[in-house]
Specification:
By secondary structure, the protein is an all-alpha fold. Helices cover about 70% and strands about 0% of the residues. Helix 8 packs antiparallel against helix 15, helix 9 runs antiparallel to helix 10 and helix 10 packs antiparallel against helix 11.
């Protein structure tokens, strides 16, 4: 059985060859490259290329351009299936990461970042679409939690190897980038050999889809993208620039993040199933307001590290945005809307790193106060998700409902 010799329905295989396990292994393969790249990225930029907030902002904006163009994935699906595009994307990710250390210049870093990012963002678009098609609605959040946990385990492997090996074996940036990328490529070869072509559940529309009734999903996705930039670009940069974290120390911090995600993500998935998307997202955004305000005024490196770990732990709750959409969506809209959603998610990502990179030069605290304001806006949006969302019941404007009449 291989991708080239057999086609199968998603429900026809169980055990380790099931679509759910395939999604888990793909998540792990992605993280082997991306986690290694992410661990080294800030140190490589500062120590090898002497980047400041301006250059790191430009580099991160370049990284987000493929995310902004994720809607184009729907046109690629005219000539290939989603699983194929996911595999090609993993290959691009691995190649881009493996090549990074061989181009230690500003332009070289921008170029390899773009290649890596094309793979990462198109993989994420396809993984989200396939998850929503292959996983049953009743248990999708729990299964997605397990997928995140497997990705977190792969992060642990990457960060653990860097944490132990960086000083012990005097590793270079070039070596770690190369090994990280090649690990993803090796797992991809295994996937091609071990798994068949899985057919999509419902035929997907091969055109862009924008529906008025999905507006809250779009708004939550946009705000999640804006908030993510504050964490991914500036929280990590804070640890390196202000508190002087070295590569192995950043790896140790990411190792903690991976441990928390591996332990918490499945539980978070089950809690979303139990309590619903509205309560889960409101909890996330209340916590994020506190975390971002903490970043703005922190002066102790251990407190900053604690905020970073807590901030990262909240990412798993974003599953609730995906399962909210799964419950309200027309099944044929999932693939095209996943591409559109990734584009919406990255609208802010294209300009926030550059604009906030310049703000950073004058006031790092202002960057994180703005992040707290974004979390506050997201909290308001999350509050209008119905307790039981479905097609036709996408939004509940609780603040417009008349107050109950007092009994006479």
């Amino acid at each position: 059985m291989s991708y080239f010799t057999r086609s199968a329905a998603p429900s026809s295989l169980t055990g380790w060859r099931s679509p759910a396990v395939l999604l888990m292994i793909m998540a792990g393969a992605m993280q082997l490259s991306f986690a290694g790249w992410w661990n080294l990225m800030n140190n490589f930029a500062v120590q090898e290329l002497a980047f400041t907030g301006r250059e790191i902002g430009i580099q991160q904006s370049i990284r987000e351009i493929p995310g902004f163009l994720s809607f184009a994935a729907i046109f690629l699906l005219i000539i290939m299936r989603e699983q194929t595009l996911a595999y090609i994307s993993l290959a691009l990710l691995g190649i881009g990461v493996a090549a990074t250390g061989y181009f230690p210049t500003e332009i070289g870093f921008y170029a390899t970042t773009l290649i890596m990012s094309l793979g990462f963002h198109y993989y994420e678009t396809m993984a989200q679409s396939l998850s929503l098609q292959w996983l049953p609605k009743a248990t999708a959040a729990a299964s997605m939690g397990k997928i995140i946990a497997v990705g977190a385990f792969a992060q642990l492997v990457a960060y653990g190897l860097i944490f132990i090996g960086w000083k012990m074996f005097d590793l270079s940036f070039t070596t770690v980038f190369l090994v990280s990328g090649c690990l993803t490529l090796a797992v991809l070869v295994f996937l091609l050999a071990a798994y068949p072509k899985f057919r999509e559940g419902v035929p997907q529309r091969k055109k862009l889809v924008l529906r008025k009734r999905y507006w809250l999903f779009y708004a939550l996705t946009f705000m999640a993208g804006a908030r993510r930039q504050i964490f991914t670009v500036f929280a990590g940069f804070l640890m390196v620039e202000r508190f002087g974290y070295d590569v192995h120390e950043v790896a140790g911090l990411f190792l903690l993040n991976g441990l928390f995600n591996m332990a918490l993500a499945p539980k978070i998935g089950h809690l979303i199933v139990r309590f619903g998307e509205r309560k889960a997202l409101m909890l996330e955004y209340i916590g994020l307001i506190a975390v971002f305000l903490g970043y703005a005024f922190v002066t102790n490196e251990n407190v900053a590290a604690g905020l970073y770990v807590v901030d990262h732990a909240f990412f798993a709750i974003a599953i609730a945005i995906k399962t909210y959409f799964q419950k309200i969506a027309d099944p044929g809209d999932i693939a095209p809307t996943s591409g559109v959603a990734f584009t919406i998610n990255h609208i802010a990502a294209v300009f926030i790193p550059v604009v906030f990179g310049f703000i950073w030069l004058y006031s790092p605290a202002a960057v994180f106060v703005a992040g707290a304001a974004m979390a506050g806006a997201s909290l308001i949006l999350a509050s209008i998700i119905p307790n039981n969302p479905s097609a036709g019941n996408e939004v509940t404007f609780w603040f417009r409902q008349p107050a109950p009449q007092a009994a006479e």
